[in-house]
Specification:
The protein is α+β, with helices and mostly antiparallel strands. It has two domains: 235 residues, no CATH class; 49 residues, no CATH class. The protein is built from ten helices and 13 strands. A hairpin with a 5-residue loop joins strand 2 and strand 3. The radius of gyration is 24 Å and the shape is globular.
Length: 341
Amino acid sequence: MANEIFVDWISISQLHQTEEQLPIYCGGIIVNYDPLGNARHERVCAASFPGSFETSIRLKSDGKHTSLSGNVGRFSRKDNLFNLGFRETLAKANRICLARGLPAFTPAKIRASDYEAESQGARVSRLDITCNFATGSESQARALIRWLGNRSVSRMKKGRVGDESVWWVNTRHMLKAYIKHIEMLKHGCSPDDLVYQWCKEQGVVRVEIELKKRLLFDEGLNKLENITDEKLIHIFHDETEIFSRVDRSDEPDILDAIPAKSRVYASAWLAGQDLRNLLSNGTLYRHAKILREYGIDILEPRNIEQFPVKVQIVDLKPLSMPSWYSLEEQEPVLRLVVNEK
């Protein structure tokens, strides 16, 4: 899956230890005042640099501290069905900075003698990683979203929009899945576009994970020197475990495999009862944790609809980039329009 997982957003900053004054980039200052008119908080906004196809990157520099934020791989490209890996994303981000007189983002320099940092490296505060999955058709893609919409993820709040998208979120990260060609239409893509048609035919479902500051810090991935594509792939697998969780609720002998103390609750759920109205929160969540190991989720209403995509849900494969797709920056094609009189 290494080549199929890519970066869709990066927020990165660094304090540069240089005597030279770097170029200043600022999009304005927001000041908050108290009731007496005293300034209490000032926030410097980043400057926005536009690219082709209505893309943009945000840069900020006070002369020493620089930051960049945006979908770097998407910058000056028509779409982002596929995107760059982490190393390529960092390289392009550095080219953007260098073109505007700013230094590149670099990892901390570590002394070999005592492993102490000689200089502070760049820090990452947000990183979105993404993968495309093929379901085979739009109807299969919708069935997958419905199936996912009936899954719960521990300690995450869930939301959904019909059978087009579903997401789970907490303070550490956000996981979302949506049908790609429908999202492209909402963003102004033409139904005649080749990429749109290909996504619709393939039934492409996009899965994105937004790694927030808290998770990056806990994993040590807030430091540039610690981030590798291999680590991001590992995190993606861990956080998308819901996709490989087999629904066993239709197996006739499933109750025999469940521990006796939880069997009665599994039986009641299978019969269609809503256990959230019958059990205390402590009992409900205790048995929900146990029953998830057996493919039963008692936190959600009993799903009695049979989806033909069930096997594909278990065996979903990441979608590889087709040979005709390009990751290179592009310029809009200008056409001359002549009005005949």
